[in-house]
Amino acid sequence: MLLIIGRRFRFLRWDRSGTIVTRAADYFEQPDLLCKMLWRMSQLNEEQLGYDPSAIRIDRTDPDYLRMNTIALPVETDADHMERKLDDDMLDDAPVYRYVRDMFRRSLHPEWPRYRLEVKDTDSGETHSFFVGRPIFHAPGMAGRGTRGYVAFHHESGRFVWLKDAWRADYKLVDKEGITLKKLNMVGVDNVPTLVCHGDILGQTTKTPDYWGKNDDSGASATDETPTPATVASSSQTLATPQPSTSRSHKRSRDEANDATDDTLSPSDPNLDGKNPKRSEECPLRLHAHYRLVVEEVALPLKDFQNSRQLVSIILDTVVAHQEAVEKADIIHCDISSGNILIFPKVVHDVETGTKGLNWSGLLTDWELSKPLRHESGQLRARQPERTGTWQYMSVAVLSKSTKVVETSDELESFFHVLLYNAIRYTRSNCKNVDAFIEAFFDPYTVEDNKYECGTKKKHTMKGLTELTTGPSGGKVLRFTSEPLNDFLYTALVWFNAHYAVQDYAESQKNPSQLLFIQPKKPEPAPLIALRRAPVDKYSNARLGSLPPQFVKTKENVPKKLEAKTEAAALKVATHSHIQTALHEVMYSEGWVADRVDGDNAPDTFEVVHPVDPPVGAAASTVKRRRIEQTCGPAFSCYQRDYGSLAPRTPPRHDATC
Could you give the dihedral angle defined by the CA atoms of residues 347, 350, 355 and 359, in that order, rounded to the nearest 10 degrees? Predict the structure, then answer.
């Protein structure tokens, strides 16, 4: 790109890691330099200029253009996706749902180009072709992962699929999302996407990090300016601009969050970046590679749940998926959020009665940021040079310490926050100002020692210092219309209060390993009772996770000032079993009501009373913000946006439209 301001010009080169900017030069004094650069640019081919040869434009004269129009037409045999019992001849086990074809038809916008996208599968080496129109989701900005999600038509199989096009983090220790999904599929983890194919695109990788810190003065101008790499959307640093040592309270937008929860590691670590181990330790720019992932399921967003009981059921499904990934594949998700928990209608069979039904099941998606629980060496360690996750749903422990290793307790707390967020926003409660609650509980942050940390209300509530109230700093105790939902939330809250009491006491003793846990042998999984009735027994007791760990008491490791009941309660969030059992039990409790509101409790007209101002210079930090969700219709895991290093802000909470 050529930038001209007055008599001075610069050349800029963009990729998904950032921007390389040349020194300014005077074209009147150095016309040869300008002409030389323009001539060289004219000699580049289309691929060198940034065009993607694996994305083939389909014009109106192409037979595939007419074929896409035909595919989009309604078909009588397409299935309704609502939950119900089915007669034997009503549906195949893998029907085409009406909402999927509708989404594909809406993507064929007359003013939007159509493409045939190619994916060379990493495993088989075969090249697959997919017809796509307008993306259902498109992350804004020129830097970052640039995720786009499509309802695509698979040319070879003749089926609709979900295609995710993104610039993945390109580090040695970071598995491609498709490799992770293949592992999960192979060991039989339920309620996760089914891999079709995946692969990097023609070796397209970012180059900007290679130029970080270079000061080549050849052909430089008379100016004293130095090269200025662009701030990068996905370079999620936890450091804020230098601040006074006192903590200052700020808010983070509910629609943006720090892409962070992993323990940190220098970008120069040779195990982190196998391609360029000598990169500067100060370089905040992430390496990215162009990548496509295709899965079978085209799902519905979590916000489409019909009542709070169904919401609890969907959360239970994804907790089971998380537990199975941990126990069967030794993988932890690291980004539990509303955007990554979706709804997928599934035909299931009841073996006992011989009948079948259509159930709305939870689907745990977007395993891009997941990691093995242990490295090949057997030690827990980081794989990316910054923490990763979605701010609003991250645990207090992770938000309060950026170097903390993500554990099961942190992920279970994230599930708790997802349930609370969607319940307060879409169901009936005694909270009169939902916007203010979300502003106070989910969005805030503090700056402590130049780092972003957890907001006050969330921290105090999860640690049991204050009750879960409706107001920003007080008010009535929050209650929902459905009593079983209250039962679960406040039961789980007691366990998390105890968990933080134990952790805080351990920290006060300068020994983070106060409690020792011994994992018992895993029970054999019992068959899933497939057909959901009213109420539906979705999981047998043996299916609800392993037994809780045993607590070992010795003179050296027992916190002497904690009550036994506090220690026992803290253990209930050390594994999945108690959370799963609690969710399962409240599903079949009496007291559920039709509590889904029409639309959203957070109105479009909401205005922030006290607009959020960033720390001084925060716009220059490399912090990633992500959309919590998009509401462009049903979709897969790409309901999230990559933001550049924007200052923390609070935009209106209105749903984005396609």
Answer: -30
CA 203 to chain centre: 25
Measured between alpha carbons, how far is 364 from 569 in angstroms, rounded to an integer?
27
Q: How far apart are CA 394 and CA 252, in angstroms?
A: 13
* Beta carbons within 10 angstroms of residue 188's beta carbon: 10
Euclidean distance between CA atoms 360 and 97, whole angstroms: 13
Report field, pTM of the whole predicted structure over 0.85: no
Bridge-partner residues for 8, per DSSP? 5, 26
Per-10-residue mean pLDDT, the chain, length 658:
94 92 94 94 91 95 96 93 80 84 96 96 96 93 90 96 95 90 97 97 91 62 39 35 38 38 34 47 82 97 96 97 96 94 91 85 95 65 58 93 89 98 97 92 84 90 95 91 97 96 84 47 44 44 44 45 89 96 95 94 66 38 33 37 33 37
DSSP letter assigned to residue 576: S
Residue 477's alpha-carbon distances to 121, 308, 439, 468, 521, in angstroms, are 53, 19, 17, 6, 40
In sequence order, the 6+-apart residues with CB closer than 8 A to the CB of 420 are 441, 489
User: How would you classify residue 249: left for phi > 0, otherwise alpha for psi between -120 and 50, otherwise beta?
Assistant: beta
Place of tokens 């020194």: 23
- Residue 252 near residue 648 (C-beta atoms within 8 A): yes
Burial class (CB in 10 A: 0-12, 13-18, 19+), 353: exposed
Q: Which amino acid is at 77?
A: T
CA angle, residues 320, 322, 324, in degrees to nearest 5: 70
